[in-house]
Design goal:
With about 280 residues, this protein is an alpha+beta fold. It has nine helices and seven strands; from the N terminus they run H-H-H-H-H-H-E-E-H-E-E-H-E-E-E-H.
Length: about 280
């Protein structure tokens, strides 16, 4: 049965879905309805307070409605709300109370105060909303990257644990810091289980740096060779490839190795050589 990977989602997709799920008024229709409701409520509150505010010719409604609409619906809707509620306030509350021949200083000052308060409110709320959304995107991106890293670690761990070859990594002191199941099964005395499952980090009980290890660390080049190792069930022959492990700065921090069991092939070749020698 073929294995099909699930569709991958980018960090941007995850961040977008996070923003949408966090915003109860994400759809345009809901944003429009909310902006209208807030504007009407602000104008209604201004109408109720008209006996108190009329002598001062204060607008009030735009300064309250615009920041609220900006928070829930965005800066564009906030500026539109500012224009609509300011126009409505002038028509409903300022013009009816203005006496012919009276000074226009009061209405002009009130209008400037209204514009300043609304503008400051819109800018501050918009900056806070943008900052929150950016933080959400960064958090979602970090979570997506962490999930991808965990998935890659799982793939790598399962791969090295199920290969018949031995895989291992030594640090500069000759301690095994990473081995697969095959190595741990054949050489349990060389490693000490760490906190993780097989294939995770392991600490060596007996650090050992072979001549090949020294050569690899000194030259920075991989080495392939054949070796025979005695085991309880008899000697086994391996073809080993060792290579340097380097950090981001290009410095060697360890030695990695892959050893493939070629005992059967080695024995067959030895038998063939013996027969040819007898003949």
């Amino acid at each position: 049965m073929a294995f099909t990977s699930p569709p991958r989602r980018s960090a941007v997709d995850i961040a977008s879905s996070t923003d949408e799920s966090a915003a109860p008024w994400a759809s345009p229709v809901r944003r429009t309805a909310l902006a209208i409701a807030i504007s009407v409520a602000a104008l209604a509150a201004r109408w109720i307070l008209d006996p108190i505010l009329a002598p001062y010719q204060l607008y009030i409604a735009p300064a309250f409605a615009s920041p609220l609409v900006t928070y829930w619906c965005g800066a564009g809707a906030g500026w539109l709300t500012f224009v609509v509620t300011t126009t409505a306030s002038i028509v409903l509350f300022v013009v009816p109370h203005h006496q012919p021949g009276a000074s226009l200083v009061g209405p002009v000052v009130a209008g400037l105060l209204n514009a300043a308060a609304s503008t400051v409110g819109i800018l501050i709320i918009d900056a806070l909303v943008r900052s929150r959304r950016e933080a959400q995107r960064q958090a979602a991106s970090a979570m997506a990257a962490e999930a991808r890293a965990r998935r890659r670690d799982t793939y790598l761990r399962e791969f090295i644990d199920h290969t018949p070859a031995m895989m291992y990594v030594k640090d500069l002191d000759g301690r095994y810091v990473l081995v697969n199941n095959r190595f741990g099964t054949l050489f349990p005395d060389c490693v000490e289980e760490g906190s993780g499952r097989s294939g995770g980090e392991r600490r060596a009980g007996r650090p050992h740096r072979s001549e090949v290890d020294e050569t690899v660390m000194e030259t920075g080049r991989s080495e392939t060779y054949e070796e025979t190792v005695p085991l309880p069930d008899g000697p086994r022959t391996w073809v080993s490839c060792k290579f340097p492990i380097v950090d981001d700065d290009g410095r060697t921090i360890g030695v990695g190795g892959v050893s493939t069991d070629v005992t059967e092939r080695h024995n067959a070749r030895a038998d063939l050589e013996r027969r040819e020698h007898v003949l």
